Amino acid sequence: MVPIPLKEFVAGSVIPVDLYIRLSDDKYVLIAKEDSKTQMDQLQAYENKRVEYLFVRREDYNRYVGSNLVIAGVVVNRNEIAAERKADFLARAGSSVMREIDVLGLNTESFEHAKLVSQATATLVEAKSDLYGVMSSLAKISGELLAHSVAVSTVSVMIGKTMGWTKRATLEKVALGGLLHDVGLKEVPVEILRKSRAEMSFDELTLYESHAFRGLEILRTIPSVPDDVASIAYEHHENAIGQGYPRKMRDLRMNPLAKVVALADQFVELTIRSPNCLNPRTAPEALRYIEITMGQPFNKDAYSALRLLIAKPSGQNAA
Ligand SMILES: [Fe+2]
Ligand SMILES: [Fe+2]
Fold first, then answer.
1. Is there a contact between 138 and 91 (Cβ–Cβ < 8 Å)?
2. Domain of residue 1, residue span
3. 146 and 286 together in one domain
4. What's the mean pLDDT when you consider all of the chain?
5. Rounded CA separation 310/282 (Å)
6. Strands 36-37 and 14-15, how do they pair?
7. FRET label pair with 108: which of 114, 198, 200, 256, CA 20 to 30 Å apart?
8. 73 CA distance to ligand 1 centroid (A)?
9. From the CA of 197, which ligand is nearest?
């Protein structure tokens, strides 16, 4: 059984799979047959009883995620729907895909789902890049790694677009690389992931830092993964001045898309809560931290683009 947070369900939407509630460790009860609609009062009643998760069968989970994606894809393409609501749907679809990869592994099907999310992300950002609106939708995602991945994906596309990247295929690739950049963390024990970097022993840190290479290896098992996306996973902890890991590459040698994701990753790490960031900074504070405390080690063009995005008042369309 795969748990799905209760707050991911929207009242009145059709659930394409059977839905269960858990009574005890191994006892589940069917609460809704496939293709029935979720009811507001039913969801409310569960919330009052402090139910946190509903469950779907493992073999149904791909189908559940697929239908979420179809809905998000439709919503993102509809003009009459407000951008903030679109971002909400996208965040939900993105987090269900990341959970799918977590539970079922990265396979051709979950990778195709990740591609659909990336296409929707590119569509949304092309139509409207409002950094603050998007960040506030992302803050609602439960699960820190989920929120982190979806945020890095979106912010990377925004930076790329502000840098003048116009090719749709490039924007989709950077979105996909942003979404999957930390996929190698799947192989790092959760006890280590719960610690901040400062609390890790040398061996734990080494294991943690291996996630970049592990990500590359995982992505290489899927033939349809573009090389750029695999490079993003491998190079997202490098920086322009050669002080990153695992290879201490410099700006000139780094993959152009990875330069953007490396900056987006750092920015999101400073602004969204995680074991490394118990008091998230505001966007301008994060920018100052990158510039002053870290000495701005990232690609200059990417950094200027992020600065432009942050200076823009909320709700304003990108040029
Ligand atoms: Fe990472
Ligand atoms: Fe990351």
1. yes
2. 1-56
3. yes
4. 89
5. 10
6. antiparallel
7. 256
8. 27
9. 1
Give the distance (Å) from ligand 2 centre to CA of residue 16.
Answer: 32
Alpha-carbon distance of 67 to 61, in angstroms, equals 10
Same-domain status, 148 and 8: no
Structural domain includes residue 73 = no
Same domain, residue pair 39 and 136: no
Q: Which residues partner with 27 through β-bridges?
A: 24
Confidence band, pLDDT 50/70/90 cuts, at residue 315: very low
Residue 150 near residue 268 (C-beta atoms within 8 A): no
Instruction: Annotate 147-170 with b (16+ C-beta within 10 A) or e (fewer).
Output: bbbbbbbbbbbbbbbbbebeeeeb
Kindly report the pTM of this predicted structure: 0.87
Strand, coil or helix: what is 142? Answer: coil
Q: How far is the CA of 45 from the centre of ligand 1 (A)?
A: 39
Judge whether 5 lies within some domain: yes
Judged by its nearest atom, the ligand closest to the C-alpha of residue 277 is 2
57 residue type, one letter: R
CA distance 16 to 9: 12
Residues 51 and 135 in one domain: no
Q: Which of the ligands is closest to the CA of residue 216?
A: 1
Give yes or no for residue 132 having a pLDDT over 80: no
Which of these three, 35, 56, 77, is where a domain ends?
56
Q: Does 294 lie in the same domain as 191?
A: yes
Q: What is the CA radius of gyration of the chain?
A: 19
- Give residue-wise pLDDT tens across range 84-100: 788 888 888 888 888 88
Contacts of 45 (CB under 8 A, 6+ apart): none
Q: Give the integer Cα–Cα distance in Å for 296 and 300.
A: 8
Query: Helix count (H) and strand count (E) of the chain?
Result: 14, 6
Alpha carbon of 183 to ligand 1 centroid (Å): 8
Q: Is residue 288 part of a domain?
A: yes
SS3 5: strand
Nearest ligand (C-alpha, residue 266): 2
